[in-house]
Fold this protein.
Amino acid sequence: MKDVMWIRKLLTRPVKARITGWPPVIAVSSWSLHNNLNSGSLDIAEFPQLARDRFQVSVVELLLNHLSSTDDDYLRQIYLRASNAGVEIACLALDNDFTVLSPESDVEIARALDMIRKASLLGATVIRVNTGLRGIGTDDDLTRRVSHCICSLLPLCKTLNIRLALENQTPFGMRPEHITSIVRTVNSDYVGACVDWGNFYPEDLNMGPERLAPLTLHVHAKAYSFGQDGEESTINYAKRLRELREVDYGGVISVEWECMSPDLEIANTTIAVNLLRKHIAAL
């Protein structure tokens, strides 16, 4: 019954590419605990409850490759575990390559369509997609290919009320002008940018997030290390959040802690979450 009620809510909520209305919602991505998940010391089904208990968040993002299965019954169980913990799965992160030529692109489109259906079983309202990295051609060639693939997904996105957030990831997608060009080419209320604060070329790290702020649909708050002052050592959280405040961003900001040590994942994810809370409150 809960599953039916959630899907009914999902299909009737209003849609727009950007969610406005500051403040944003803090979430934690399963990537923050990827070492523990990959080693088997933590099961993804336990992650929503852990996020609620340890990070005091009620929203999470799941990576597709952290799921043990994409079987429908399994996904419904993940949704119910999260729902029972009082946690919403806001985003499913998909790995894809939309830069390739047909017939490979047809395979990528078919797989993405299947994952959109799977995301609806999790109650996700956003799917993170990438541009891809295997395609060869000019910037215009790659923009056209990625835009074509995304447009092929839109009818199902509209049916299920799921939006696509294109991340600045992989060599082509790490340029903010490329993400901007694709999003504006597609020109849909169902497509926006997933802005990862750490996934830019060095020359774009400062201005890239600001340039993408008006198109932002989903955010990854990357964290690598912290200084003695408690601030992230490489990313100015205060500046990044001021940029989002200026465009009245009210969507999800999902913490992604980057570390090779499983022992530090929970503690440092907690620091990153609290750092976001501090700077959001100050605005």
Observations:
- Residues 2-282 form a domain with the TIM Barrel fold (CATH 3.20.20.150).
- The two ends are 40 Å apart (CA to CA).
